[in-house]
Design brief:
The protein is of the alpha+beta class. The protein folds into two domains: about 140 residues, 3-Layer(aba) Sandwich (Creatine Amidinohydrolase, Chain A, domain 1); about 220 residues, Creatine Amidinohydrolase, CATH 3.90.230.10. The protein is about 30% helix and about 25% strand. It has ten helices and 18 strands. The protein has a six-stranded mixed beta sheet with strand order 4-3-2-1-5-6, with helices on both faces. About 40% of the residues are buried. The mean pLDDT is about 95.
Amino acid sequence: MMRDLQVDAMLLTTEPHVRYLSGFFTQFWHSPTRPWFLLVPLDGKPIAVIPTIGVTGMQQTWIEDIRSWSSPQPQDDGISLLLSAIRELPRQFGRLGMTLGIESHLRMPANDYRQLETELSNMELVDCAELMLNLCNIKSAAEVDKIRYICELTSDSFVALPGFAQTGQSEREILRSMRIDLLQRGADHTPYIVSASGQDGYGDIIMGPSDRLLEDGDILIIDTGTVYDGYFCDFDRNYAFGYASDKAKRAYTCVFQSTEAGLLAARPGATTTDIWRAMWSVLEAGGALGNDVGRMGHGLGAQLTEWPSLTATDNTTLETGMVITLEPGMEFEAGKLMVHEENILITDSGAELLSKRAADELPVIT
């Protein structure tokens, strides 16, 4: 892939990419103080250029060439060491790949990037974001096993939720209980768990949990990205409290059927847009006023959301080994949403559910 892109090396700076190609797995990335660099040459093993605090951990991986400096040093936080490593590499194309494009960022000071551009004036810095997206998009059997494990564990927690959620509790209280339940079941942590609630439906899917108390007639959605050994699940479930109105039940059924259409459409050779059309046709026939989320699913793996996106225009071809989410949603009346999400693996024969399928009728917690 690097030869096709005609780059002599790739310089990677973000946790998912450094971990993917080195095996260096630490929570220390939560500290924004220090930059970390992994230089991947066209031939040979990667070179780690990292703060000294991470050397012992990097030595536990397959990386042998580890170059370090005492950080933080704001005036030269590893840049001179990094430049030296880059200049030592053989030159065939005179191009260095960095993640500059879609669904990417550079985890280093912008001024340091500008210095790289200046100091490497004889090299062209080019975007390798799409290469990394395609590389990470096809999951190994080991990756799938981790995702399947956390999906099943989280599915069981959702099934158990009516046993620790009731009318009169707040969203925050219910989600706190679910976090505890997830940990007890074997999750490592739950960095993403949100909720929303309201009479007959909810108005957003990214903001909570709030201190709002659940009342009879409320619909509660919980969406979680829970992690096991560095791999995410990402799906949601809906619950009614006390009773469910007919319009809430109809919306739930419509979105459930939309997910079914997505499951049938998800197979190798189909596109993300094929799935989007299959799901949207059901929502549209069911009276959807719209869907402001922007997409109805995405890739999943070492990050909560990965490429590609299920949209009307994405048109990415599905391949065996891809893990994606199906996330149809509809505004069924002004200010009222209903959203479903499942996690699936694309296999030679079609879609395999990794999450345990949501109930076909809206669950009511009485």
